[in-house]
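Summary for the steering committee. The consortium agreed at its last meeting that each partner would contribute one worked example illustrating the joint modelling workflow. Our contribution is presented below. We chose a case with several input lines so that the handling of multiple components could be demonstrated. No manual editing was applied between input and output; the record is shown as generated.
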Amino acid sequence: MKRVESNLEYLRKLFIMPETPDKFMEFGHAVLEMIHDFVQEKEGLHQSITLPELAGIFNQTSMPESPHLIRDVVAEIRDKVTLHSVKVGSPYYIGHMTSAVPYFMILLEMIIASLNQNQVKIETAKASSFVERELIAWVHRMIFNQSEGFYRRNIQNPRVAIGNVTSGGTMSNLTALLVAREKALPADRRFPGVRKAGMERALRHHGFTRLVVLTSKRGHYSIKKSANLLGLGEENVIEVPVDTHNRIDINRLRRTIRAIKRDDQITDARTKIMAIVGIAGTTETGNIDPLTELGDIARQEGAFFHVDASWGGPALIIDEYRNLFRGIEAADSVSLDFHKLAYCPMTMSIIVFRNERDLNNLKQVSQYVNRRESVDTGRFTIEGSRPFACLKPWAALKILGKDGYRLLFEQAREAMLTFRRILEDSGNFEILNDPELFIINYRFVPHFVRIEVHELAEASKPSSDRTSREEARNKVRKTNRILNELNIQLQKSIRLDDTTFVSRTAIESTQYQYQRIVVLRAVLINPLINDSILEEIVSTQNRIGLSLADQYEPILKETLA
Amino acid sequence: MKRVESNLEYLRKLFIMPETPDKFMEFGHAVLEMIHDFVQEKEGLHQSITLPELAGIFNQTSMPESPHLIRDVVAEIRDKVTLHSVKVGSPYYIGHMTSAVPYFMILLEMIIASLNQNQVKIETAKASSFVERELIAWVHRMIFNQSEGFYRRNIQNPRVAIGNVTSGGTMSNLTALLVAREKALPADRRFPGVRKAGMERALRHHGFTRLVVLTSKRGHYSIKKSANLLGLGEENVIEVPVDTHNRIDINRLRRTIRAIKRDDQITDARTKIMAIVGIAGTTETGNIDPLTELGDIARQEGAFFHVDASWGGPALIIDEYRNLFRGIEAADSVSLDFHKLAYCPMTMSIIVFRNERDLNNLKQVSQYVNRRESVDTGRFTIEGSRPFACLKPWAALKILGKDGYRLLFEQAREAMLTFRRILEDSGNFEILNDPELFIINYRFVPHFVRIEVHELAEASKPSSDRTSREEARNKVRKTNRILNELNIQLQKSIRLDDTTFVSRTAIESTQYQYQRIVVLRAVLINPLINDSILEEIVSTQNRIGLSLADQYEPILKETLA
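What follows is the complete predicted structure of the assembly.
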């Protein structure tokens, strides 16, 4: 790589947009060719390079001394980085929530970077502050659907914030739970509030032993993370079991609350239920909690009701999915990510609060930003400096419109149903969730095992006689343990094969309650997916599964005998 | 604006990089022309449009229904957004830490968006995980300069993380203080640690009444924010006064610590000093704390030593500034932003830990990401999904090299010194800090007041006799109050004039100790700055100042009489 002699004139020129865009376009063209080649290239989704090999490539322990030509660094990026990146945009990559993004997103990123506004304050973000508030109003209305007057009053009212743009779902959930903590441990005449005084004094003042958060076992790990950060302690996130549809079991939730109260009485403690967190699209299975019931319980218990719709939220852009989310309008706050189901690049998340005064609990001022009389967005956010990321969903909603998103979600739904049908038709796969929001859990179960396991599962039901029930259950358990191993091997082999990709998790909420079952997980939102691609994915995975099944056949047959 | 009929084929095409880049280039060209026009355009830094007028433009309370042409939306962005954005890249805009960025950053953003890697896990970020670790090693070495063996061992070792990339300085500081809290309230045989048990139980178990953080009055407001988030309470951030160089007053710090211990004895409390936070480049004044002394005190007190180098840190890229940061190598953690002094677009921050095991305190696992055996970066971060933002500093350090950054920082230093000289020469400005890292605090003091105030300030020193001292001090105080008002007016008028921009703050640490003085604040890092631009800025501000001074002259003269 050529080292260049640096001088201030050369450097200055880098900081000026050239007189005409030609110079820039030359590089832009090279970058686009590179991206194009990467996308077209057929060499597999993750590339065959191993992690130790990559470790050998990126092993410079000191910063570069001399400058290098942009051209050379772009070439280095192509050879070392792009070539060994994951093709998350490929329709054969259906393993995670990252999908293809429309190419106009790249144009928007160019605008964002070149304007380089800092959303923290109006002096560094003029129009962009207004874009952000407009977008937040759209999202708020999509979820809470308050009166036109509410939005007229608040859309550009700098004294309140009805939501925040954040860097991701974790930050959105953290913001919600921070507000919940403030409301659980508020200031009064004799106390400055948890924010000023800290957790220990706040609990003591309000006479609580602890704050707890209730959510389901499918709750995202950011809820525990937030409980750690906020000083509640991870132990005080109580995970309630789910039913076989991966929805929080409302009866178990009620029992859990009763148990908390009983324990409080016995131990002379006082537990405050700070928040109940509903999930609108679980990370692993895409299912939605019964939000109406959760809202009712939260109200009865005086708990803050947060809905983590990081995954599913954007489905509300169109009315067809509203029914699934029934009850979300009663939430105190809802978080949703635009870099997942709304097809924006990493990262762009929103948290909205039903009550326009809730975010006042976070309000902060300082001398150099966010002065008392200020209209700065940064008064209401956990984060400080923030990019003009909201331009992406704002423009995407205009370019695609609700109509466009409708077509995309219809296509995703079709892909989900088709994938399920192909899996079922193959005879060697078992579906393990009730797919709602474009996520399917399944596993490879060789045909010779499937029928037996089903019969055994039937025999293990309470209706059968006790001895044969026990025996049948034991067999199912043992078989599932072997199948778990087989499916871990399968997913690893699929990764090695690298022409298709699904992810893997382990859940206790399948029909084999409550044994933890290893499942393959497909997320089917890429608009480039078509039927023949799905056929290809299943046939590849079936082929790999069958070759593995040979190894497992003796032990499986022995277990089932 | 033309509404377009949406169909799936049209939508799908948006998700595919066109066969040749031509189609994309057509839009890319339009975007670049737009950016170019915006930069060239001479209409002022913030545009004359008022905030209420902007509120009238961005007042759609519902999401758009129908799709629109990309061309039309880009035109809408041009007319409504770009045109009314803040020209943070202009050399006349010297008010905040946002500067011009080199145009290759736009190319890098294009790459980041189109690869769309998610840094949270290796399955969604292969080479990019290694780029991130390499960059973190460079930064770690720049600060802590451990042995070559240390970096060989840890640079690509997935079992540890010597630092994290975060979305901003606030998240970096929060990460540092979260680790500090874990270390202050650790797990032991009878206790699962604050992370699991929460603040109240952890304090009780360890026998502490509270945790405190000590920092100077110049500490960034994210320290208080973090103390709120972490359940310490904002009141437990103890802000120690600074000297007239805006550096923490070490004697006052020692006295503060003694006072805490004395109070603990009297009230039978037990305060744990969780962390001491040094500042390497204060937000308001750019000055650096005496880090060696802070490190010594932190060690004596068993406190975690964090250095907030969000502003100044990148100056360490070159050796010439090392002396200013003496003692930083003894810190437990250091945060630094690349979107400020390192000329990257918003946002890109790093937190590094001297001890490679410290981030294990954050380690988390879940079934669907970051499994136990995993090598995923997300095990160590507060944030979840994260963009491939680290490509920007990684590539910038290659393209510019240390040599390039040296030239940029030399130029910034020249600009700082020149600006100070021009201000001093004008006769109507007073410099109010001791500029180190490219930030100057100054204020407008009309010539007829300056001499008098200085004489009075002399007379108010302890050496003078008591009566005349009291009288002189009173006069200085009153005069400063009027000058504060004048300078607030001046900064507002400068904003209205809109051909130049500086920010404003109020600090108690000028030569007029401890009266709060309103100061104008200039940040001089834009490489496009030259002497004649600086002359122009001062002459404009002097002209506006003089016209305001006319109004204030009678009252000022009366006060000084």
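Residues 400-560 of chain A form a domain with the Aspartate Aminotransferase, domain 1 fold (CATH 3.90.1150.170). The mean pLDDT of chain A is 93.
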